[in-house]
Amino acid sequence: MRLVALALGGALLLPAAATFAQPATPAQASPVPAVAVTGAASAKVQNDRMNATMRAEAEHASAAAAAAEVNARMAKALAAAKAAGVEAKSAGYGTWQQWEKGRPGKWRVAQTVSLTGADFPALAALVSRLQDEDGLLVSSIGFALAPDSRRRAEDALTRDAIRAWQQRAATAAEALGYAAWRPGRLTVSSSDLAPQPRYEMAMRAQAAPAAAPPVAVEGGATEITVTVNGEAVLEKPAAR
After folding, report:
1. Which of 30, 118, 172, 233 could serve as a FRET partner for 37 with CA atoms 20 to 30 Å apart?
2. What residue numbers bound the domain in which 72 lies?
3. Quick one: angle between helices 63-83 and 120-134, nearest 10?
């Protein structure tokens, strides 16, 4: 009987010992006061790259004849682009058959070339010549910033945007009654708005006898905006 009593007594002590061994819960830290602030800077930068997309098309009863005509015209256009110092890149090639009711089917072949350069007048003159002499058709003309130009503009705007963010952070801290603050986590992003450039071009048919008028272009500008978002951590309440 004595042994049983001791065993029961030991069992009764176990819950108390287990409770005593539990670690103490740490006190929760007080949240650090912070305010979210946005700063931005924008500028319009003149476009310095022009891109023209042109295509050569041919239609014949034979697919080989259509391809031969397109290949010859495109080879001549690529040679003219190289001579003019214009960057040229093949952008697409397609062959398909067309059918008309009551008539034998015909084969159509089309090839596209992308022309890019920094000399707008020279590239516009080349486009006009390829339209007039080689029968190429203009698909699109666009303008943009060269990568180096964009990077330089974004670097300068980043500095301005950070200064604007700092000024707004200081203003917000003062308005909230704090005499000191420090930057928290920040993000920097950029975006651009390129307005549709103005240009005039002739989309003449292959059989048109008259020469196409010269292509007149205006590059326009791209508006770049750099935005800084982040928290200003408030550290020292102002003295009252």
Report:
1. 30
2. 50-144
3. 150
Global pTM value: 0.70
Q: Are 231 and 36 in contact (CB under 8 A)?
A: yes
Last residue of a domain, one of 144, 177, 192: 144
Q: What is the mean pLDDT of the chain?
A: 83
Cβ atoms of 168 and 39 within 8 Å: the answer is: yes
Closest CA to 71 of 51, 57, 53: 57
Q: How many domains does one find in the chain?
A: 2
Between CA 82 and CA 115 the distance in angstroms is 10
Neighbours of 32 (CB within 10 A): 10
Asked which of 120, 144, 168 is the last residue of a domain, the reply is 144
- The three-class DSSP label of residue 20 is helix
What was the pLDDT predicted at 64?
94
Q: What is the DSSP letter of 62?
A: S
Percent of the chain with pLDDT over 70: 78
- Return the structure tokens found at 139: 């698909």
Task: Quote the tokens at residue 224.
Answer: 């770049």
Closest CA to 116 of 129, 102, 130, 127: 127
